[in-house]
Amino acid sequence: MSSKRQMLGMLFFAAAFVAVLLLVKPGEASAAVYYVNNQSGSGCNNAGAGTSTAAPWCDFTPVNAKTFSAGDQVLLKSGAAWTGQTLNLQGEGTASQPILLSSYSTGNKPIIAPGTIDSIAILLNGKGGWKIANLELSNAWEGIRLQYDHVYNKDYIWIENLTIRNMTSAYNSAPTSYNHTSAGISVKTMADAVSPPYSDKVNAPGRLTALTNLTIKNVNFYNCDTATWFGAPVTGFNPSEHLWVKKVIMQDLTIDGGGMWGFNALFVDGGVFTNLVAKNIGGVSNPFGSAGFVIAYSKNVEVIGGEIVNVSRHPDQNYDGVGFDFEGVGKNISLRNMNIRNTAGAGIFHYNNSGLPDIDTVIDNNIVSHYGNNPGNSSEGIYFAGGSGIVTNNVFNNSFARSTYGGSYGEFVFAKNTANTVSPSFVPVPPSVIGAPAGTGLVTSQVPGTLRNDSNGEVGFKFTTGATEITLQGLGRKAVAGNYKTHTLKLRKDSDKSLVGACSVSTSTAVPDSQGYQYCKLAANVSLQPATSYLLTSTEDYGGDYWHSDDTTIALGTGTVNGSIYNNGGGWSSGIAGNRAYGPVTLLYTLTNIARSGTAAASGTDTANGYAASKVNDGIASTDFNGWASASPAMPQWIEIDFGSNKTFGRVELYTTSGYELRGYQIQVWNGSSWVNAFPAVTGNSSAHRTHTFAAVTGSKIRVYSTQGDAASSYARVNELEVYSY
């Protein structure tokens, strides 16, 4: 019995040991924490293991010699500082188990301040899988350099809660060389030059990827020649030698004192930059021209919110000094909700670097103030050097008698922009965020087809509207798991391919509806005429986000699908006829209130108290004291709307006044020779808002014929009359 008990005990122990092993995730067993502390009394020893706070490493010599593994941590003592050294990190983690470089204990952030010419505070050369947080970097050529020299497809760098100071020409042997700019955070890439060079420089379909998933959050930069410098070359500058950086997120970053630029981003494919603030930019000589934000050779990027203020140009340069610089060679780049003010040159600069201005640009809901205070080559609210896109909902506050727009902008569409004349002391309020669009989705059902991402250009479908006018409020694109880029959605009239409406949707931030569509709001509602054909498309990117091919079938809530269509740069082509679509894409619409375009008249009006017949179709659907009231309590009284031509409709929304409800009335239609009732008369009404649906009728006028006024005063009151096709 004793030996059996021993055997059972051994088996139980073995099973328990195996169970513990199964609970350990790959890589966790080797994860370790290393400490660095050079403060007096720390007991530091570079020859030791460095794995306890009682015996930490002293400086970066053992750190640089160590190859770290996924899940490891390298922690610097809060309050400590290191000079004369670069932290050259080795090893790679993963997105789920990054290697962490951060701080430990309480106190000020640990400081890395190399303090020598061409020094770098932290270098990650060809690495992915790192998280860097809670440090202060100062006095160097570059604060953090991410370098990918013939290194490809690395994943995950996260940088958060840093302070970066004094990355300037004082620590730079060649500050005017383009590839040698002093920067808080730089991303430098290099590949073998493509031969021949890319013929499609914007899409660059052969360009490889250096890094995917770069996140930078909550970083404050002070006195740096630029906060960020993405796409800086390792040597020289040849666009065919560069690599993409994909899925870039920058959030809550501030630079105060950007000598050359505030932020600079090149060769980014897919990014969302939120709440970036650039202040006091352009104080040093810059042969490339100063700007609060420069973006070039990039695509599918959204810049949302934030502020650019006080951008000057150095006396050595008679150009630029602009707020936001779309430098060129890009597409699908959006600038939204930005407050730009006090710029030497243009508030927004849409340039044509390499002769290629950006296409499908979105400039929406920005406030641009005090532009052109020391102009060189630009002074406008927006200066254009070609390109295409939409400019909507922007406010331009002009205090130096400058033009709102300048240059060449023939392929841009403008809507709901406002220009004001203000004093130089005027302080603009940041723009409010535009709300989401409302309405009913045009596509009511779909069977998605094959996923693909092998085309540059526009894909979608052609449709013909039904017998009734509809009002367009927004456009939508079907969400696909893993998508992260921005897409410009467009609606064109088929007959002449003219642009009816456009907006840009972010697949990484927009919330899908119940059918999986992500929407963007148009600057202004657009009416789509009955029995008219339109093209509805999304711009797509070769090798980018996935979309569904035209083996997709769709059904519409109104109108008819005519088939899939596409344009990959060679003109418009039809795909499969019938209920087929690429994407799929959709739109949000409401039925047009026919009454809004009509002319109102009445039997008599109480004008002394502010009532007017014209108020019954002014779009204010209120049940307060508003609208029309009869001049007399004697019945009958009437209020009519003349459409100007025959309209077919089957629903009315009648608003009267709360407490003064219209008790008895008829809804009547003018059939060309007489008034006829649309439905039986209403008696004993006590509701301030009534919806009436009925068999469709056709007429050129509609009227409310009152037979019994309100209970309080006996007057007839109608606040608003809305008329819909159904």
From TrEMBL:
Secretion signal, residue range per the UniProt entry: 1-31
Pfam families referenced in this protein's UniProt entry, alphabetically: F5_F8_type_C_2
PROSITE patterns: FA58C_3 (PS50022)
SMART domains: PbH1 (SM00710)
Keyword Coiled coil: no
Keyword Signal: yes
UniProt domain F5/8 type C: residue ranges: 581-726
InterPro entries assigned: FA58C, Galactose-bd-like_sf, PbH1, Pectin_lyase_fold/virulence
Keyword list, A-Z: Signal
Protein name, as recorded: F5/8 type C domain-containing protein
Organism: Cohnella phaseoli
